[in-house]
Fold:
Amino acid sequence: MWLANITAQKAFAVAALFLTSGVSAAAIPSGLLDPASVSVAPAFATDVATSTQIATTGADGKPTPVPVADIPECRDCRDEDEDDQTTPSSLESVPVITVSSDDNSSDAPSKTTREPATEAKRAATATKSESKYAKLEKTLGKTPEVGQGYAIKIRSERNEASGVKYVDHYLIVVGYVSQTTEGNTVYLKFDSACYDIEVKDNKIEFKDKSDKTWYDFDGKFEVLGKIKSGLTHVEIEDYGNSIATAMDKKGYNLLTNNCRDFVMKLYKKIKA
Structure:
């Protein structure tokens, strides 16, 4: 049959003749079936990169060009006598391009290869305490409360040559516990002052011994208890001066009007 000897491109041309306006089946020359009678010339159509046209006779008897778009010849559409020149492409030759999710073609690494974020290790918190605080903690026998005020009684003793110890003096230390943080270090302090009385020319005077290293005194330390909150050193000193003045009127007495009495009277005035 004649259809067995026509290629796919020529068949497409024949079909296009039937669909072209003004061309009837009777107008198709019998010689079209012969490849030698087909006039093929290059032409250009809208939106078609390359096309061909076939010259034939229309219904009015005039030559009519029919545009036919070129069809890529795939392997199944080529004539059987054409050699297969197709060479399979290698996947190894195709470059792999990574594009970030925000359409930015920068060299940022893809999410699949990014290393997980490592949490920075926090430095260990260090705690430091001053000597006054350390002495309060040791005397109290437990951790002092931050913001709380305490009163400490110090009993100074004198060693005799015979080996017997006698009470030499009494002092009182009053203050408040504070805490500050600098970087990763916590500082604990006992903001305190040391007071006592002194007899000079038979006169009892109030004395501030805060500049002394009372925490290193050789004696017995005892926490009397907590003191009122919010007291200032000025207020405490005023209480101490008032007590010393009252004691001076009676005159110093080793049994009833001495340094021990001063300590206990001042603590009674400021105790919580």
In short: The two ends are 124 Å apart (CA to CA). The beta strands are 40-45, 48-57, 63-69, 126-129, 149-159, 165-182, 185-200, 203-208, 219-227. Helices lie at 8-19, 131-140, 233-250, 259-270.
